[in-house]
Amino acid sequence: MTAAPRKEVRRRILDTAYDLLAEHGVGHLTQPRVSRAAGVRQSHLTYYFPRRSDLLLALARHSMEFLAGPLTSQARRGSMAPEHIGDVFMQALSDRRRVRAVLGLIAAADEDPAVREALRDLIKRVRGRLTDLFAGMGFPSSAETVALAHTFIVGAGVLHHARADDEARAEAQAAIRFIVEWLVRAPRTRKPRARKQPAGASS
């Protein structure tokens, strides 16, 4: 199998797994179900994703890159207005597939230390992308600010997912408006100036 077909098979598996997540939840992400729905042999699925946790992690990374990549590019070009970022965050946390993938990873991490380490790495990646996004938007982008915003957004997403009704959606929208308004108003952090050494001082 050449590189191009391999990439297509992997993408088909991921797309199928997303659909199963959206319709049925993490419990349906078994290797036989995913391989049947994707129309591939189970041996092909396990070649790319030996364990279900590997598939969940790939889904979470795929989702993050799909959302964050274009956002960061727009912010750097100056084409992302601050008033639009709230809509983007709301769209992300309304996607039940993303939330289910993260919750599935959290559950898997309780049983597998390797998954927990991979989840830590994923969180670093997400926060790195948020840092780039905030910097491009002119928002404060310190580690503390990014961590707080990320925690706020993920919490809103989980609570929205848990209830999945109009009240939960309204609360999530209010939470996103709050965090975006806070980011707009928050004071910008400045890098401390390097101190000049006295003449003749050794470095």
Structural overview:
With 203 residues, this protein is mainly alpha-helical. It has two domains: 1-50, Homeodomain-like (Arc Repressor Mutant, subunit A), CATH 1.10.10; 52-185, Tetracycline Repressor, domain 2 (Orthogonal Bundle). Helix content is 77%, strand content 0%. The chain contains nine helices and no strands. The protein has helices at residues 3-24, 31-38, 42-48, 52-77, 82-94, 96-109, 113-137, 143-163, 166-185. Helix 2 (31-38) crosses helix 3, helix 4 (52-77) packs parallel to helix 7 (113-137) and helix 5 packs antiparallel against helix 9. The longest helix has 26 residues, at 52-77.
Which descriptors apply to this entry?
single chain; 203 residues; mainly alpha; Arc Repressor Mutant, subunit A; Tetracycline Repressor, domain 2
Q: Note the gap between the termini.
A: 58 Å
What's the architecture of the largest domain, going by CATH?
A: Orthogonal Bundle
Structural class, judged by helices and strands? Answer: mainly alpha
| Uncertain spans | 190-195
Q: What name is given to the CATH topology of the largest domain?
A: Tetracycline Repressor, domain 2
Number of DSSP strand runs: 0
Please tell me how large the radius of gyration is: 20 Å
Q: Report the helical percentage.
A: over 70%
Brief digest:
The protein is mostly helical and 203 residues long. The protein is 77% helix and 0% strand.
Topology:
Elements: H1 3-24, H2 31-38, H3 42-48, H4 52-77, H5 82-94, H6 96-109, H7 113-137, H8 143-163, H9 166-185
Helix pairs in contact: 1-2, 1-6, 2-3, 4-6, 4-7, 5-8, 5-9, 6-7, 6-8, 7-8, 8-9
